[in-house]
Amino acid sequence: MTPPGTHVFDVLDSELLLESPILAVRRDTLAMPGGGTGTREIVEHFGAVAVVAVREGRVALVRQYRHSVQSRLWELPAGLLDVAGEDEITTAQRELAEEAGLAAGRWDVLCDLVTSPGFCEETVRVFLARDLSDVERGEMEHEEADMLLEWIPLEQARAMILRGEIVNSIAVSGILSAAEVLDGRAEPRPVDTPFPWRPTALASRRVGPDLKKMS
Fold first, then answer.
1. Of the candidates 138, 140, 133, 174, which has an alpha carbon nearest to the alpha carbon of residue 157?
2. Does 75 qualify as catalytic in the annotation?
């Protein structure tokens, strides 16, 4: 057996179990330490972006219904990386305009997240948006038509996290990271910082600019 931390988990076989517009599920057979094999089900994903938009010490939060937990959650403006060839900052700018009716004169990278590595390849790049101006908000449909936008003081948002009122992991990470930057304890990264965690498997099987459309 190889020393811990050195085994190569080669994929011996892969089977697609489910394909839907915004995700897929595959089963990989892996070479395990000691010579055996094991199977792992993986949820494939496009990846996503989220935005911490700050104006005069307040952060823009949306309250959106999520059927998986059958509850409305406090979240950041966010969206899937579901346009072929589009970079992360362009998606973030579009989502901020559509969900919050905002444009930003200054953008930075706050953090990158692997949201559920035990079974899902979803990764999220979280941006900090400042020097905000109002723009026309996009047309909403489905759950987003019910979505509320509110401006919450950053200190209050941090307290809401600690009280268990903000539980969306992307919002938690983004708000706490933004607080570190805005309080002068950390520096953000430039928007052209490479994002090597962005998933590719699901997007590679789609044809056309809208990756949600299945051929």
1. 174
2. no
Q: For the segment 34-51, what is each residue's pLDDT rounded down to a tens digit? A: 889 999 999 999 999 999
Say whether both 16 and 57 belong to one domain: no
Residues 6+ apart with CB under 8 A from 68: none
Token look-up 């723009």 returns: 135
Amino acid at 99: E
* pTM to 2 decimal places: 0.94
Tell me the CA distances in angstroms from 213 to 24, 125, 167, 182, one per residue in order: 13, 23, 31, 40
Same domain, yes or no, for 34 and 92?
Answer: no
Element (H, E) at 25: strand 24-31
100 and 173 in a single domain? The answer is yes
Instruction: Considering the candidates 144, 165, 180, 187, report the single residue annotated as catalytic.
Output: 144
* Same domain, residue pair 117 and 38: no
Into how many domains does the chain fold?
2
Domain shared by 151 and 163, yes or no: yes
User: Exposed e or buried b for every residue in 184-210, given b needs 16+ CB within 10 A?
Assistant: eeeebeebeeebeebbeebbeebeeee
Q: Classify 85 in phi/psi space as left (phi over 0), alpha (psi -120 to 50) or beta.
A: left
pLDDT score of 137: 83
Which residues span the domain enclosing 118? 48-182
